[in-house]
Amino acid sequence: MGTHNYNFTEQFEFAGKAKTLSIIAIVIGIASIAYGFSDHAMHERTFANLLLMGYYFACVCMSGTFFLAIQFVAQAGWSASILRVPEAMAKTLPIAVAILLVIVGLGLYTHNLYHHWNAPGLTDPSSPDYDKLIDGKSAFLNVPFFMARQVIFLGLYCFFSILLARLSANQDLEGGLNSYRKSFKYSCIFLVIYGFTQPIFAFDTVMSLEAHWFSTMFGWYNFAAMWVSSLAIIAIILICLRKAGYMPWINNSHLHNLGQFIFGFSIFWTYVWFAQFLLIYYANMPEETVYFYKRFEFYKFWFWLSLVLNFLAPVLLLMDRDNKRKENVLLGVSIIVLLGHWVDYYQMIMPGTVAEHNGFGIIELGTAIGFVGLFTFTVLTSLSKKPLIAKNHPFLQESLNHHL
Questions:
Q1: How many structural domains is the chain composed of?
Q2: pTM of the model
Protein backbone atom coordinates (compact mmCIF):
# COMPACT_ATOMS: atom_id res chain seq x y z
CA MET A 1 0.00 0.00 0.00
CA GLY A 2 1.39 3.38 -0.98
CA THR A 3 1.77 6.38 1.28
CA HIS A 4 0.25 9.75 0.49
CA ASN A 5 0.82 13.32 1.60
CA TYR A 6 -2.59 14.68 0.71
CA ASN A 7 -4.08 17.57 2.62
CA PHE A 8 -7.18 16.06 4.21
CA THR A 9 -8.31 19.43 5.57
CA GLU A 10 -8.52 21.04 2.11
CA GLN A 11 -11.84 22.79 1.45
CA PHE A 12 -13.34 23.94 -1.80
CA GLU A 13 -13.70 27.71 -2.07
CA PHE A 14 -16.85 28.64 -3.92
CA ALA A 15 -16.06 32.11 -5.21
CA GLY A 16 -15.04 34.01 -8.29
CA LYS A 17 -16.29 33.16 -11.77
CA ALA A 18 -18.17 29.99 -10.79
CA LYS A 19 -20.24 31.80 -8.17
CA THR A 20 -20.86 34.82 -10.38
CA LEU A 21 -21.98 32.72 -13.35
CA SER A 22 -24.34 30.64 -11.20
CA ILE A 23 -26.00 33.80 -9.85
CA ILE A 24 -26.31 35.23 -13.38
CA ALA A 25 -27.90 31.95 -14.50
CA ILE A 26 -30.43 32.13 -11.65
CA VAL A 27 -31.34 35.70 -12.65
CA ILE A 28 -31.80 34.58 -16.28
CA GLY A 29 -34.07 31.79 -15.06
CA ILE A 30 -36.20 34.12 -12.95
CA ALA A 31 -36.52 36.58 -15.84
CA SER A 32 -37.53 33.78 -18.25
CA ILE A 33 -40.16 32.46 -15.85
CA ALA A 34 -41.51 35.97 -15.33
CA TYR A 35 -41.67 36.40 -19.11
CA GLY A 36 -43.63 33.15 -19.37
CA PHE A 37 -46.14 34.25 -16.75
CA SER A 38 -46.52 37.71 -18.30
CA ASP A 39 -48.74 36.24 -21.03
CA HIS A 40 -51.72 34.15 -19.94
CA ALA A 41 -51.45 32.06 -23.12
CA MET A 42 -48.00 30.84 -22.01
CA HIS A 43 -48.89 29.91 -18.40
CA GLU A 44 -49.35 26.22 -19.14
CA ARG A 45 -46.09 26.03 -21.07
CA THR A 46 -44.25 27.84 -18.27
CA PHE A 47 -45.65 25.46 -15.65
CA ALA A 48 -44.64 22.50 -17.81
CA ASN A 49 -41.04 23.76 -17.99
CA LEU A 50 -41.01 24.45 -14.25
CA LEU A 51 -42.19 20.90 -13.60
CA LEU A 52 -39.57 19.52 -15.98
CA MET A 53 -36.69 21.30 -14.27
CA GLY A 54 -38.08 21.00 -10.74
CA TYR A 55 -38.47 17.26 -11.22
CA TYR A 56 -34.98 16.98 -12.79
CA PHE A 57 -33.44 18.97 -9.92
CA ALA A 58 -35.10 16.83 -7.25
CA CYS A 59 -34.32 13.56 -9.04
CA VAL A 60 -30.58 14.12 -9.36
CA CYS A 61 -30.36 15.26 -5.73
CA MET A 62 -32.26 12.21 -4.41
CA SER A 63 -30.04 10.05 -6.62
CA GLY A 64 -27.07 11.58 -4.79
CA THR A 65 -28.54 10.08 -1.61
CA PHE A 66 -29.07 6.81 -3.49
CA PHE A 67 -25.39 6.84 -4.53
CA LEU A 68 -24.30 7.28 -0.89
CA ALA A 69 -26.60 4.49 0.29
CA ILE A 70 -25.40 2.09 -2.41
CA GLN A 71 -21.76 2.68 -1.43
CA PHE A 72 -22.46 2.08 2.27
CA VAL A 73 -24.54 -1.06 1.73
CA ALA A 74 -22.04 -2.50 -0.77
CA GLN A 75 -19.20 -1.51 1.59
CA ALA A 76 -17.47 -0.13 -1.50
CA GLY A 77 -13.92 1.04 -1.08
CA TRP A 78 -13.18 2.70 -4.43
CA SER A 79 -15.60 5.58 -3.81
CA ALA A 80 -14.63 6.55 -0.25
CA SER A 81 -12.58 9.56 -1.40
CA ILE A 82 -15.29 11.04 -3.68
CA LEU A 83 -18.33 10.82 -1.38
CA ARG A 84 -18.34 14.54 -0.57
CA VAL A 85 -19.79 15.31 -4.02
CA PRO A 86 -22.92 13.08 -3.82
CA GLU A 87 -23.18 14.13 -0.17
CA ALA A 88 -23.43 17.79 -1.27
CA MET A 89 -26.15 16.78 -3.73
CA ALA A 90 -28.01 14.94 -0.96
CA LYS A 91 -27.81 17.96 1.37
CA THR A 92 -29.35 20.09 -1.39
CA LEU A 93 -32.37 17.79 -1.70
CA PRO A 94 -34.61 19.68 0.82
CA ILE A 95 -34.30 22.83 -1.32
CA ALA A 96 -35.14 20.88 -4.49
CA VAL A 97 -38.07 19.18 -2.77
CA ALA A 98 -39.51 22.49 -1.52
CA ILE A 99 -39.35 23.93 -5.05
CA LEU A 100 -40.94 20.84 -6.61
CA LEU A 101 -43.79 20.78 -4.08
CA VAL A 102 -44.55 24.45 -4.76
CA ILE A 103 -44.59 23.82 -8.53
CA VAL A 104 -46.83 20.76 -8.22
CA GLY A 105 -49.15 22.46 -5.71
CA LEU A 106 -49.59 25.60 -7.80
CA GLY A 107 -49.97 23.51 -10.96
CA LEU A 108 -52.81 21.59 -9.33
CA TYR A 109 -54.46 24.73 -7.95
CA THR A 110 -54.39 26.59 -11.28
CA HIS A 111 -55.19 23.46 -13.36
CA ASN A 112 -52.13 24.16 -15.50
CA LEU A 113 -50.77 20.73 -14.58
CA TYR A 114 -52.56 17.39 -14.11
CA HIS A 115 -55.73 18.66 -15.78
CA HIS A 116 -56.25 15.21 -17.31
CA TRP A 117 -57.53 14.04 -13.91
CA ASN A 118 -57.93 17.23 -11.86
CA ALA A 119 -60.21 19.29 -14.10
CA PRO A 120 -63.72 20.08 -12.76
CA GLY A 121 -66.50 17.62 -13.60
CA LEU A 122 -64.34 14.63 -14.59
CA THR A 123 -65.61 12.50 -11.69
CA ASP A 124 -69.16 13.87 -11.56
CA PRO A 125 -71.60 11.55 -13.43
CA SER A 126 -73.99 14.47 -13.96
CA SER A 127 -71.35 16.61 -15.68
CA PRO A 128 -70.98 16.73 -19.48
CA ASP A 129 -67.20 16.37 -18.87
CA TYR A 130 -67.61 13.14 -16.91
CA ASP A 131 -64.85 10.62 -17.62
CA LYS A 132 -65.60 7.09 -16.47
CA LEU A 133 -61.96 6.00 -16.63
CA ILE A 134 -60.75 8.92 -14.51
CA ASP A 135 -63.62 8.36 -12.09
CA GLY A 136 -62.42 4.77 -11.68
CA LYS A 137 -58.97 6.05 -10.72
CA SER A 138 -60.21 8.84 -8.45
CA ALA A 139 -59.61 6.88 -5.23
CA PHE A 140 -55.89 7.14 -6.05
CA LEU A 141 -55.80 10.24 -8.23
CA ASN A 142 -57.32 12.92 -6.03
CA VAL A 143 -55.61 16.07 -4.82
CA PRO A 144 -55.39 15.34 -1.05
CA PHE A 145 -54.02 11.80 -1.49
CA PHE A 146 -51.75 12.90 -4.36
CA MET A 147 -50.17 15.71 -2.33
CA ALA A 148 -49.93 13.49 0.75
CA ARG A 149 -47.90 10.95 -1.22
CA GLN A 150 -45.65 13.69 -2.59
CA VAL A 151 -44.99 15.13 0.87
CA ILE A 152 -44.46 11.74 2.56
CA PHE A 153 -42.18 10.26 -0.10
CA LEU A 154 -40.10 13.38 -0.62
CA GLY A 155 -40.02 14.03 3.12
CA LEU A 156 -38.61 10.54 3.72
CA TYR A 157 -35.93 11.06 1.07
CA CYS A 158 -34.96 14.37 2.72
CA PHE A 159 -34.84 12.77 6.17
CA PHE A 160 -32.38 10.09 5.07
CA SER A 161 -30.33 12.60 3.05
CA ILE A 162 -29.85 14.82 6.11
CA LEU A 163 -29.26 11.80 8.35
CA LEU A 164 -26.49 10.35 6.17
CA ALA A 165 -24.83 13.77 5.85
CA ARG A 166 -24.97 14.24 9.62
CA LEU A 167 -23.45 10.81 10.26
CA SER A 168 -20.65 11.67 7.84
CA ALA A 169 -19.94 14.86 9.81
CA ASN A 170 -19.94 12.90 13.08
CA GLN A 171 -17.47 10.41 11.66
CA ASP A 172 -15.12 13.24 10.71
CA LEU A 173 -15.19 14.47 14.31
CA GLU A 174 -15.25 11.19 16.23
CA GLY A 175 -13.55 8.62 14.01
CA GLY A 176 -14.12 4.96 14.74
CA LEU A 177 -16.81 2.78 13.21
CA ASN A 178 -19.91 3.86 15.14
CA SER A 179 -21.13 6.40 12.56
CA TYR A 180 -20.19 4.11 9.66
CA ARG A 181 -22.24 1.24 11.10
CA LYS A 182 -25.21 3.58 11.54
CA SER A 183 -24.76 4.79 7.95
CA PHE A 184 -24.85 1.17 6.79
CA LYS A 185 -28.01 0.45 8.77
CA TYR A 186 -29.90 3.56 7.69
CA SER A 187 -28.79 3.10 4.08
CA CYS A 188 -30.35 -0.38 4.07
CA ILE A 189 -33.62 1.08 5.36
CA PHE A 190 -33.50 3.92 2.83
CA LEU A 191 -32.92 1.59 -0.13
CA VAL A 192 -35.94 -0.54 0.77
CA ILE A 193 -38.15 2.55 1.11
CA TYR A 194 -36.73 4.15 -2.03
CA GLY A 195 -37.13 0.97 -4.09
CA PHE A 196 -40.84 0.73 -3.28
CA THR A 197 -41.73 4.42 -3.40
CA GLN A 198 -39.63 5.85 -6.25
CA PRO A 199 -41.73 4.20 -9.01
CA ILE A 200 -44.93 5.51 -7.37
CA PHE A 201 -43.34 8.98 -7.17
CA ALA A 202 -42.63 8.80 -10.93
CA PHE A 203 -46.17 7.53 -11.63
CA ASP A 204 -47.62 10.47 -9.70
CA THR A 205 -45.39 13.31 -10.81
CA VAL A 206 -44.98 12.50 -14.50
CA MET A 207 -47.12 9.56 -15.67
CA SER A 208 -50.35 11.02 -14.23
CA LEU A 209 -49.95 13.97 -16.59
CA GLU A 210 -51.58 11.56 -19.07
CA ALA A 211 -53.95 9.78 -16.71
CA HIS A 212 -55.66 7.64 -19.36
CA TRP A 213 -52.37 5.89 -20.08
CA PHE A 214 -50.24 3.75 -17.81
CA SER A 215 -47.14 1.58 -17.96
CA THR A 216 -45.84 -0.62 -15.17
CA MET A 217 -42.30 -0.06 -16.51
CA PHE A 218 -42.51 3.73 -16.29
CA GLY A 219 -41.12 3.94 -12.74
CA TRP A 220 -37.97 2.02 -13.62
CA TYR A 221 -37.61 3.99 -16.86
CA ASN A 222 -37.56 7.15 -14.73
CA PHE A 223 -35.21 5.57 -12.20
CA ALA A 224 -32.71 4.76 -14.95
CA ALA A 225 -32.89 8.34 -16.24
CA MET A 226 -32.40 10.00 -12.85
CA TRP A 227 -29.66 7.59 -11.79
CA VAL A 228 -27.51 7.96 -14.92
CA SER A 229 -28.03 11.75 -14.81
CA SER A 230 -26.73 11.90 -11.23
CA LEU A 231 -23.69 9.79 -12.19
CA ALA A 232 -22.97 12.22 -15.02
CA ILE A 233 -23.22 15.19 -12.63
CA ILE A 234 -20.88 13.53 -10.13
CA ALA A 235 -18.37 12.93 -12.93
CA ILE A 236 -18.62 16.53 -14.16
CA ILE A 237 -18.09 18.01 -10.68
CA LEU A 238 -15.14 15.72 -9.92
CA ILE A 239 -13.43 16.45 -13.24
CA CYS A 240 -13.94 20.21 -12.87
CA LEU A 241 -12.60 20.10 -9.31
CA ARG A 242 -9.58 18.12 -10.44
CA LYS A 243 -8.92 20.56 -13.29
CA ALA A 244 -9.10 23.41 -10.74
CA GLY A 245 -6.42 21.74 -8.59
CA TYR A 246 -8.68 20.19 -5.96
CA MET A 247 -8.94 16.52 -4.96
CA PRO A 248 -5.53 15.39 -6.33
CA TRP A 249 -6.23 11.88 -5.04
CA ILE A 250 -8.82 11.35 -7.80
CA ASN A 251 -7.13 9.24 -10.48
CA ASN A 252 -8.11 7.76 -13.81
CA SER A 253 -9.33 4.58 -12.13
CA HIS A 254 -11.99 6.54 -10.24
CA LEU A 255 -13.06 8.10 -13.53
CA HIS A 256 -13.05 4.65 -15.11
CA ASN A 257 -15.52 3.39 -12.50
CA LEU A 258 -17.86 6.32 -13.11
CA GLY A 259 -17.51 5.84 -16.85
CA GLN A 260 -18.47 2.18 -16.47
CA PHE A 261 -21.57 3.13 -14.50
CA ILE A 262 -22.61 5.77 -17.05
CA PHE A 263 -22.01 3.31 -19.90
CA GLY A 264 -23.86 0.47 -18.19
CA PHE A 265 -26.86 2.43 -17.01
CA SER A 266 -27.22 4.19 -20.36
CA ILE A 267 -27.70 0.70 -21.81
CA PHE A 268 -30.11 -0.15 -18.98
CA TRP A 269 -32.12 3.03 -19.70
CA THR A 270 -32.33 2.01 -23.36
CA TYR A 271 -33.36 -1.52 -22.44
CA VAL A 272 -36.27 -0.28 -20.30
CA TRP A 273 -37.23 2.36 -22.88
CA PHE A 274 -37.28 -0.20 -25.70
CA ALA A 275 -39.07 -2.84 -23.63
CA GLN A 276 -41.83 -0.33 -22.82
CA PHE A 277 -42.05 0.75 -26.46
CA LEU A 278 -42.01 -2.81 -27.84
CA LEU A 279 -44.76 -4.09 -25.54
CA ILE A 280 -47.03 -1.17 -26.43
CA TYR A 281 -46.24 -1.48 -30.15
CA TYR A 282 -46.88 -5.23 -30.16
CA ALA A 283 -50.14 -5.05 -28.16
CA ASN A 284 -51.42 -2.22 -30.41
CA MET A 285 -54.17 -1.21 -27.98
CA PRO A 286 -55.50 2.33 -28.57
CA GLU A 287 -55.40 3.31 -24.87
CA GLU A 288 -51.65 2.53 -24.85
CA THR A 289 -50.51 3.52 -28.33
CA VAL A 290 -51.88 7.06 -27.87
CA TYR A 291 -48.80 7.77 -25.72
CA PHE A 292 -46.42 7.15 -28.61
CA TYR A 293 -48.79 8.59 -31.22
CA LYS A 294 -48.47 12.02 -29.61
CA ARG A 295 -44.69 11.76 -29.56
CA PHE A 296 -44.45 10.60 -33.18
CA GLU A 297 -46.95 13.20 -34.37
CA PHE A 298 -45.82 16.32 -32.50
CA TYR A 299 -42.40 15.52 -30.97
CA LYS A 300 -40.72 13.28 -33.52
CA PHE A 301 -37.44 15.22 -33.55
CA TRP A 302 -37.17 15.14 -29.74
CA PHE A 303 -38.18 11.47 -29.68
CA TRP A 304 -35.26 10.35 -31.85
CA LEU A 305 -32.82 12.92 -30.46
CA SER A 306 -33.37 11.39 -27.02
CA LEU A 307 -32.21 7.98 -28.27
CA VAL A 308 -29.15 9.46 -29.98
CA LEU A 309 -28.01 11.43 -26.92
CA ASN A 310 -28.90 8.88 -24.25
CA PHE A 311 -27.91 5.66 -26.00
CA LEU A 312 -25.75 6.04 -29.09
CA ALA A 313 -23.45 8.78 -27.77
CA PRO A 314 -22.50 7.22 -24.40
CA VAL A 315 -22.28 3.68 -25.81
CA LEU A 316 -20.10 4.60 -28.79
CA LEU A 317 -17.89 7.06 -26.90
CA LEU A 318 -17.45 5.03 -23.71
CA MET A 319 -17.20 1.55 -25.22
CA ASP A 320 -13.41 1.89 -25.40
CA ARG A 321 -11.68 1.33 -22.05
CA ASP A 322 -9.24 4.20 -22.54
CA ASN A 323 -12.04 6.70 -23.15
CA LYS A 324 -13.49 5.99 -19.71
CA ARG A 325 -10.15 7.06 -18.24
CA LYS A 326 -9.77 10.30 -20.22
CA GLU A 327 -11.25 13.19 -18.28
CA ASN A 328 -12.07 15.32 -21.34
CA VAL A 329 -13.90 12.45 -23.06
CA LEU A 330 -15.81 11.53 -19.88
CA LEU A 331 -16.62 15.20 -19.28
CA GLY A 332 -18.01 15.56 -22.80
CA VAL A 333 -20.08 12.38 -22.58
CA SER A 334 -21.45 13.41 -19.16
CA ILE A 335 -22.61 16.75 -20.56
CA ILE A 336 -24.24 14.95 -23.52
CA VAL A 337 -26.03 12.58 -21.11
CA LEU A 338 -27.35 15.50 -19.03
CA LEU A 339 -28.65 17.25 -22.15
CA GLY A 340 -30.06 13.95 -23.37
CA HIS A 341 -32.11 13.36 -20.25
CA TRP A 342 -33.40 16.93 -20.38
CA VAL A 343 -34.71 15.96 -23.84
CA ASP A 344 -36.01 12.71 -22.34
CA TYR A 345 -37.99 14.57 -19.64
CA TYR A 346 -39.12 17.15 -22.21
CA GLN A 347 -40.80 14.52 -24.37
CA MET A 348 -42.18 12.80 -21.25
CA ILE A 349 -43.83 15.95 -19.87
CA MET A 350 -44.81 18.24 -22.75
CA PRO A 351 -47.32 16.00 -24.62
CA GLY A 352 -49.34 15.56 -21.42
CA THR A 353 -49.41 19.27 -20.59
CA VAL A 354 -49.24 21.50 -23.67
CA ALA A 355 -49.88 18.68 -26.21
CA GLU A 356 -49.39 19.98 -29.77
CA HIS A 357 -49.06 23.59 -28.55
CA ASN A 358 -45.41 23.09 -27.76
CA GLY A 359 -42.67 25.54 -28.44
CA PHE A 360 -38.98 26.00 -27.88
CA GLY A 361 -37.49 29.36 -27.00
CA ILE A 362 -36.85 31.77 -24.16
CA ILE A 363 -39.00 29.91 -21.62
CA GLU A 364 -37.36 26.51 -22.22
CA LEU A 365 -33.78 27.76 -22.43
CA GLY A 366 -34.11 30.34 -19.66
CA THR A 367 -35.80 27.98 -17.19
CA ALA A 368 -33.18 25.31 -17.82
CA ILE A 369 -30.33 27.81 -17.39
CA GLY A 370 -31.90 29.11 -14.18
CA PHE A 371 -32.16 25.67 -12.62
CA VAL A 372 -28.60 24.80 -13.70
CA GLY A 373 -27.47 27.95 -11.93
CA LEU A 374 -29.53 27.12 -8.85
CA PHE A 375 -28.18 23.56 -8.72
CA THR A 376 -24.61 24.79 -9.15
CA PHE A 377 -25.00 27.47 -6.47
CA THR A 378 -26.64 25.23 -3.86
CA VAL A 379 -24.49 22.13 -4.39
CA LEU A 380 -21.17 23.98 -4.55
CA THR A 381 -22.13 26.06 -1.52
CA SER A 382 -22.81 22.82 0.36
CA LEU A 383 -19.57 21.30 -0.92
CA SER A 384 -17.56 24.26 0.39
CA LYS A 385 -18.78 23.77 3.99
CA LYS A 386 -16.62 20.72 4.81
CA PRO A 387 -13.23 19.25 3.82
CA LEU A 388 -13.28 17.55 0.43
CA ILE A 389 -12.52 14.12 1.85
CA ALA A 390 -14.05 11.95 4.57
CA LYS A 391 -10.78 11.54 6.46
CA ASN A 392 -12.04 8.89 8.90
CA HIS A 393 -13.88 6.69 6.39
CA PRO A 394 -12.78 3.09 7.11
CA PHE A 395 -12.10 2.37 3.42
CA LEU A 396 -10.28 5.62 2.66
CA GLN A 397 -6.88 4.01 2.09
CA GLU A 398 -8.43 1.55 -0.34
CA SER A 399 -9.85 4.46 -2.33
CA LEU A 400 -6.59 6.40 -2.27
CA ASN A 401 -4.80 3.34 -3.66
CA HIS A 402 -7.55 2.48 -6.15
CA HIS A 403 -6.10 1.30 -9.46
CA LEU A 404 -7.66 -0.74 -12.26
A1: 1
A2: 0.94
